[in-house]
UniProtKB/TrEMBL annotation:
Residues 119-218 form the Fe2OG dioxygenase domain. Its cofactor is Fe(2+). This is Alpha-ketoglutarate-dependent dioxygenase AlkB. Binds 1 Fe(2+) ion per subunit. It comes from Komagataeibacter saccharivorans. Fe cation binds at H137, D139, H192. GO terms for molecular function: broad specificity oxidative DNA demethylase activity; ferrous iron binding; oxidative RNA demethylase activity. SUPFAM superfamilies: Clavaminate synthase-like.
DNA sequence: CAGTATCA
DNA sequence: TCAC
């Protein structure tokens, strides 16, 4: 069975152009919404191969967000620390391949933010249920000379966007279904997080939110 | 915000 | 410590 490809059209929703977030960071409102149903179906298919799981942090805590990955390497956390693994520790098998359409979408989004030649080799898939959150952190486990591209699907969330210091002031930015965020350059290591997901019901995802983040790990 | 918990 |  051939995998469905989708065309590379990061359509702008009516009237909204790129929205600057910070130096080297921007938000593309609704640009992924036209492919949302397909991508959500792919996420669910992928999760049958590499299931969503809640990882443990080095300190022993359990993350409220459920995760799985696709691509050449997947982000993993356990008591020993954070790292990228070429195989899913849960199955011992390689992660599902990154769909070509996903890759193209991430590359196009990065280019719109000024990052030409983005070559993502990993996509972290976060599943938020009501109440799930992501504490303030930096993405430091992959190449910082490549941007991070983030797609949001399903329930809205409040994106916490800070600076290079944990103590820098935070902005609270709503991220809605189909929104794309790109950050790199001087803000690549900015602290960020997600406020506890508020209850709701989305026609495509029900009571949850999916977030895909594309990175270059090697 | 300090103390604590703790996977495979 | 990407938790609580």
């Amino acid at each position: 069975m051939t995998q469905r490809q989708f065309p590379l059209d990061l359509r702008q929703s009516a009237g909204s152009g790129p929205e600057p977030l910070d130096d080297g960071a921007l938000i593309l409102r609704g640009h992924a919404s036209s492919h949302a149903a397909d991508m959500i179906a792919q996420i669910r298919r992928m999760a049958r191969q590499s299931p969503f799981r809640r990882m443990t942090t080095p300190g022993g805590g359990s993350m409220s967000v459920a995760m799985t990955c696709c691509g050449l390497r997947g982000w993993c956390s356990d008591a020993h620390g954070y790292r990228y693994e070429e195989r899913d520790p849960l199955t011992g098998q390689p992660w599902p391949a990154m769909p070509e359409g996903w890759r193209q979408m991430a590359v196009a989004a990065a280019a719109m933010a000024g990052y030409e030649g983005f070559a993502p080799d990993s996509c972290l898939i976060n599943g938020y249920r009501v109440g799930a959150r992501m504490g303030l952190h930096q993405d430091r486990d992959e190449r910082a000379d490549a941007p991070v591209v983030s797609l949001s699907f399903g329930l809205p969330a409040i994106f916490l966007w800070g600076g290079l210091l944990r103590t820098d002031p935070l902005r609270r930015i709503p991220l809605l279904h189909g929104d794309v965020v790109v950050w790199g350059g001087t803000t690549r290591l900015a602290f960020h997080g997600i406020a506890p997901l508020r209850k709701g019901d989305h026609p495509l995802t029900g009571p949850c939110r999916y977030n895909l983040t594309f990175r270059r790990t090697a």
